[in-house]
Amino acid sequence: MSKMKNPKRVAYQKKQEQQGKNVVTWIICGLIGLAILYFIWTVSVQ
């Protein structure tokens, strides 16, 4: 195998990396949203 990377493979890896970052961002935002909702719920129950 040659050491040179296929341009398609490099582009695919960059695309996958960006999609992975988007997924992580959505998960973190979702967890923060749930934490806020839980905080509101605990304050309103008392």
Question: In words, what does this structure look like?
Answer:
With 46 residues, the chain is mostly helical. It is built from 1 helix and no strands. The chain has one helix at 7-45. It is rod-shaped, with a radius of gyration of 20 Å. The chain starts with 6 loop residues before the first helix and ends with a helix. The relative contact order is 0.08. The mean pLDDT is 91.
Topology (SSEs and partners):
Elements lengths: L6 H39 L1
Question: Roughly how many Å is the radius of gyration?
Answer: 20 Å
How many beta strands in the DSSP annotation?
Answer: 0
Largest sheet: none
What percent of residues are in strands?
under 5%
**Dominant shape:** rod-shaped
Spatial gap, N to C terminus: 66 Å
Reading the helices and strands in chain order gives H
State the oligomer: single chain
